[in-house]
Structure formats: C-alpha cells, structure tokens
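[step 3/7] fold_predict: job queued, chain A
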Amino acid sequence: MRIQILPRSTGSNKDFYKFCVAFFVIIYVFLWLSRPGVDNGLIVKLENYEEPFEPKSMVLLNNTTENNTTELHGKDFPDSKAPEFTKHWCRQRRERLDWKAMLSPCVNKIGWNSSRDKANATDPNTSIISLWDIRPLAFYTANITLDFHFMQWLQGSSSGLVFIIGNAQGKYQRHLEVDGNRDYLQAPLWDGSPVEITVPPASDDEYLRGISNTDCDVKCSFMWDGYGRWVQNKWKPYFKDPHQKHEARTQKRNIMGLWRLCHVFFAHSLMQRKLCRDIFKRCNFSYNWIYPVNKFTAAKRDNDNFDYDNERVLQSFRRIVHDPQMDEKSAIIVNFGLHFVESTNFTNYKRLIDGLVRVLTDEEKDLISNVTRRKFRGTVIWKTTTAINKEKASNINLGHKRFMTQQRILLYNAYATAQMCRAGFYVLDVFPITDSYPQGTGTHGAHGPVKNDIVHYSNLAFRPAEELLEEYFDGK
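[step 4/7] structure written:
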C-alpha cells in the first residue's frame, strides 16, 4: 500500500462535506456502470468529475503511472496478470535510484526560508481518500497516519541546514524558525478511525516464478534484491537471489575495512562473525559521525567556528583506502548516512558522494610495469542508510532533529546508490529490511528495549545481510 499526502486547508470543512456528497454519488454511479468488474477492487479516477477538481488533500493508495512499464516476454510470464504485476515490481526497484523524480514535485519549494501557507497546511481530519487501487490478496484494517505537511518533509535539502552553527560535527544546530515548529504531524487520519479494505484473493502466484528473469532495466550490481518480509522474526525475501560470489579462496583474505557504518552494532557484529575471524585476516572499523570520533562524550561537547569541510571527510577516507596493506585481496564496506542526513544539506551531500567515487576510482601508474591501474584495487561495497522510526522520539518536533526524516533518507540513499551503481561498485541495500523490521528501532539494548531510540536496531535485523556477506566472500 502506498500513501501520498497533499495539503488541505483546515478551514474548508463546509466545502469538504459538499465534496463528500458528490464523491459518494460518483462512486455509486461508477459501481452501477462497472458491476462486472467490482470484484477486483474499487478504482475512482479524477477524470470522472464533470467539474475541474483541484485536489488539496487526499490519500492515494497504490497510485501509479502508466508510462513506467517494462517490456516482458510471454515465455517468462505465462499469466496475463504478470505484466501489470511486474510493472509495479519494477517501479519500486527503479525508484530507489531515481533521486530526480523524488525532487521533482518540490522544485524550488524545499528551502526552509520559502514561504509556507500555514492556512492550507495538512489537516488529518479534513483529508480524504480519493483513489483506491486494490490488488488481490486478503483483508486489511489499516490505521493511516500523516507525518509531515506536504513539501515540508524535504525542506532543508538545499538550504536551511547551517553546519557552522552546530558543534564541531555539525550536530545540535539551533534554528529559531525551526524550534517548536509543529510541521511534523504524526497524526492519525480521521482521529484514528480504522480504514477497512477488502482485497479479493489472488488466483495464483505463478507469475512470481518468472519475476527474477527481468532486471527492470536497472543497471546495478546489487548484492541482493533487498525486498521481502519478516515472518516470525525470520527474513523471507520475495525471491531467492542467485547471489554473486567472490572467487573461491584458498587462504584468508587480507583486510576488511568497515568505514562509516552508521550502525556501530552492525560493524561490531561482523567483527565477531566468520567474516572477520576466518575469511579475512582482520577487520578494521572506523567510527565517524561527520568526521572521525574517538570519544563519544568529547565529540558531543567539541565546538569550533568552522563550516562543513568536504575535503576533510574525503582526506580521512583516503588514508584508509590508500593504505599499502589494502590490496586487491581487501574489501571495504562504506556508508555515509544518518549523520549527513541530519547535519548537511543535499547539495553538500552530492558533492561528498561524487568525491567519494573519485577517491575510489583514482588511478596511478605502476613504476615497474608502467601499467595504469586504480590506487584501490579491492572490493567496494556501498551499504545504504537504514530506515528510522521518528515516531518513537520523546519529542518529535525537537528543532535540531528536524531534518532527520525518512523521506530525506530515501533521497540521500537514491543519489548515493545511483552514483555507486554508475561507478560499478556493489550495493548492499538494507533500507527495506530495516524499514520492515517488526520490532523497529531501540531493540539493540542488552537489557530490553531502549526507549526513544529512533535509529538503532537489534543485530537480528542485519543477520541476513551478514550471512550474505559471508557467503559472497567465502566464495564457496
């Protein structure tokens, strides 16, 4: 189910009720005219309105565009439903790289200083569900929550974040216009009234068998598809990937570099597993926020008057990958994630990712063989940034956490993933597996759940990814 929110004025109740009357009349006419097809769900399209309709606030369930179709071969998909199913399957996979499409609805509207029409801010109680597109499966009862006012989930991407006013790591930025702002709603639709959705049962799943035969026109070295569901605390991928494997090893590999993994628990878990104890001679872990962190408490209190320094970030990375011990038998898993979403704007983040790709593709001429080759010849794996549970925060409108949003994570992920794919590096996408983890964040504590933690997961959430890495580098 996909939900999209558009703003509606809180002062339009009268017009809202008038519209509801017209809306249900149209639904009745539609159902009468399309009686044979109602078993496949209810679809109401805006083109059915005689008068021009300007949507101010609505919830769209699985609203998709028709020009996003992948060419399929009949031999791969025996069921006639397959092309429609695969169109949406591929749409989802292309979206995780299409950062331009994510930005397009909000062009010139993402700067924090842009004028905001508070009178037309999203109101959960006057919003409507204007389109249903229900696919066969089962029966749902859903409580729908609206998180941000329209456009404001992305604000701060090009301006609004001022690194220098935070501490030395760009954290705890205080913005007078942000502190106390209530644009993060986290409010239930219609005061929490459940929305009941009847979904016709699927006839069969035969078309799922051929889904792996299409790459959805996505040119990228994903280590796995990444999508699936959790069943009784076990990860079940939608289909079993034919995992890529490193060449078979006859001895231990050299060094595994764990760089800027935003989840220190993931790195610590890897260091206790076969990957670091047997497959590689050793694993080096580098803990960073924006810049390297030696002592957690000291880093929080450290202040300076410097703005964000992109070159400083890249220089610390060069020292790792250009270490003579990091040879072709080495590997590095890298992520520039949540700390950058929180503290840097999107313009600076794009510069950083572009610079990172240049560092990893820098070349040099060997003085003995006179052959030009990359300075770092090991395996590069880009790990995407994990999902967050912002609703678990003790103060969901805390000013210096304002720009830590799920939508900005998706945007930053999309740009970074697209560039890593273009450079030919491997990508380990862990956003879906964390976003769907049933227990969510705050589950890493040794003595039970950690209240108000919006970013840290139990090691169980990453175990499938850890096993994937071991299978790949073991080469068996």
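[step 5/7] annotate
Residues 139 and 198 are 5 Å apart (CA to CA).
The longest strand covers residues 253-259.
exit 0
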